[in-house]
Model the fold of this input.
Amino acid sequence: MLRSLVVDNFALINHAAITFPAGLTVLTGETGAGKSILLNALNIVLGGRASLDTVRKGSEFLRVEAVFAINPASPAGEILNQQDIMLEDGDTLIINRRLNRNNGKNLILVNGRHLTLSVLRQIGEKLVDMHGQHENQSLLHQESYLDLLDMFAKDNLAGLEQYRQYFREWTELTRKIAQREADTANVYQRIDMLTWQTREIAAANLIPGEEEKVVANINRLANAEKIVRAVTNAYNLLEQDDGGGRGILALLAGLRQELEVAARYDDGLQPALAVVTDAGYQLEEVKAGLRNYNDSLEYDPEQLDKLQIRLDTIQKLRKKYGPTIEEILAYWAKAQTELAAVTNHETDLQALNQQKNDLETELHKLADNLSLTRIKLAQKLSAVITGHLNQLGMKGSRLAIKVESGGGLNLSGQDKVELLFSANPGEELKVLSKVASGGELSRIALAIKTVYARHDKVGTLVFDEIDAGIGGRTAQAVAERIARIAGFKQVLCITHLPQIAGMADHHICVDKVVADGRTITTITPLGEPERVAEIARMMYGTETSELTTANVKQILKNNSKKKEAWKKEALD
Done:
């Protein structure tokens, strides 16, 4: 719902700040006073075209601010959520639009966030439905017709949500299949590569920790001669010195004997004796070990070559698949898993295609059922709207909702909906957008809104001079339908008809005055006495009297009773 509108420096409006309550608000005034200027300002703040020509003469900019109260779960709220824009106080949306004369810069702020004009237009379409200005009428947008029919038929379209669920699954399957088919060449290349890699790693028969052992054996065999020489020398040092004298073991035995003699007289030498004795035993073990090592060590050039080849194999695999044998084996396990998956590419693709075909068959069945339901309901809705049109002064006119089925599947089924219209008896039904005049479109919109008032998600309706060319009973019928719609949503209406003005919940008078040599448009909310006077002027011109005033008061009283009765009907 539109809460308020502030307009600065727009055409004849110097400054205006207007509050819009719920219900029906009418704007009246003499022709040329600037009533449509106000709605043009509203259109601009909703994403309409803004021209520098509309900046008030002598001003550097124009600015329009609109404040709305909206439900976060509404279509407009969903768009704001997509744009990461938070509502203020949980439900308040503030739109500011400013156009600078000097540089033509167009500034758009939505709750303090900069937005593009295209996004603002998307939001605006969900906030206000404007009728009267040809380019803004939703009736001219064919893409909205199917939603229009489905809204009327929603209780009879139980299969629509199931269809949409299946359609989303079908769309996802189609995407997967297309991706799989596009990847087919790459898949077969991947299979070849993974097959070669897994075979290469498997053929190596790698063992964790093996590389360290291979390196150690290579070092041992490659340096066998040096090892034998060093071990032999060490053995000889234990047996005898280089001069052929006593070796380390013989000297150590002599040392032990001397300490044994001394220890007989002094127990304090026992620890030293124990160390020397233990050292003798340990060195004997070392000597035996060196002898056995020399006996077992053989230089085998063939074995060395095998070890070198094995090390080369391991190092090549390390360069390709990982720095360690453990990581190479981990890569091998992962490659085997992937190979098993991609090897089933054809089988999986066939299974996906079968799923898609089965789902598509079911989709066509559901779409056919939706089409049959829509065709029946379109006939019913056409008759209901045509009935309203006849009561709105369009005698003999017909509106038909045509459902064409069998098109390509989309999220809503397979149907294309067109609105056809004939203004006069005997004339052929033709496409609405091509044959209906602006006034006819406004009344058609009114008839449709009367039917949909409870269900339409747009919170504010604007009718710009919907009363063109009507009067008498038709004017009263139009007024009553607008008032009924206002029982469910906010309605703003520019009118010259006292019948419509008399049905309003709130009344704004737009006038044009000259001040300091400049023409300005004034916008004044009317209290009850001023409202009575304005409606009297609309009914009787300037010649008003106590009798005409009393007549207007009685009309307003009767209208108030009607509106109360309609509210009770709505509650029932």
